[in-house]
Every structure is written in C-alpha cells, then in structure tokens.
Amino acid sequence: MNTRQQDGQIGGVHIKYLHHCPRQLWLYARGYRPEQRSDLVAFGEVVDETTFTRRRDLDLGEAKIDWITTGAVVHETKSSRAPSPDHAAQVRHYCLLLERRGVTVRGGTVHYPLIRRTTEIHWNNDARAEALVSEKRARTVMTAAEPPSRLTRVDCRGCSYLDYCWGD
C-alpha cells in the first residue's frame, strides 16, 4: 500500500471503487493502475477537461474535487450516461473531507454533460453517516489480506481491471 493509504487517507476514487467493485478498490490500494491504459478513462478525462472550463480543481491531497461553488457546494463531473450510486458516494466523501477541514458544506451536484443532467446530493446527518460507513468499509477492504470476490463478467464490462480479474 502506498504511504497515503498507510496514513489512513482515503480519496474519492477509493470510495467510488468501493461502491462499484470492492476488488477494484483492493487492487487500486496495492498500486495496480490499469486505468492509465483505458480508453474509457481517457474519454472521461477529455469530458472533464472540456466541460465547465472556467472552474478550478480543489486538491485536498487525498482527493481532488472538480470544483466548489459559493456556499460550499461540491461539484463533480462524470462522463457516464447514467447516474450511479458510486458517484453520489464520492461526493458525500468530499463533503465529509471538507467538513473535517472546518468548511460548512451544503451538499453537492454531480454533472453528466453527455446527457445534460445533474443529480443533487444532500448533505445532512444521514449523508454524513453514509460517508463514515463507506470510509470504514473502504479501510476494511484495503487492509484485507485477500482480494474480494470478482463481480460477474457482465458487471465488469468496460472496467480497466477486466484483464486482471478475468484474464486467462
């Protein structure tokens, strides 16, 4: 595991991977990074770089938030064509990280520019509790001696970790 993860720092990618596929998180925590060769990841980066070009990323060290607007609303841009619970979990985690730094967070918005939709993410006691549970689950997965079971092959479609999990 890298130094940041040994220090207990968990970023948004960790939470997104946890909710998408715990095995993906386990591999990522050990430094396996096939997403660098993924066309889908490259496409997502292009969408991020060419959408909302007047905003600036906020780098928290363990996490990089796409941008924050006045009133502490977290914004995340996704290239997906469908909202996903892992996107909401990632935004809740960013809210938690900001709150720990003394910021009074109002919530978040996930932007899906390809389908011209947004999803509002509420920040309240329930959302905070969900974020804390996700963080705890991520730590458990990351420190496990063995990888979690792989998903069904159809659930792995488009995943950059597919060859690792399903390669023959």
UniProtKB/TrEMBL annotation:
InterPro entries registered for this protein in UniProt: Dna2/Cas4_DUF83 (IPR022765), PDDEXK-like_dom_sf (IPR011604)
Coiled coil: none
Signal sequence bounds: none
Domain of life: Bacteria
Sequence ranges assigned to domain DUF83 in this UniProt record: 12-166
Gene3D superfamilies: 3.90.320.10
Name of the protein described by the UniProt record: CRISPR-associated protein Cas4
Lineage, highest ranks first: Bacteria, Bacillati, Actinomycetota, Actinomycetes, Kitasatosporales
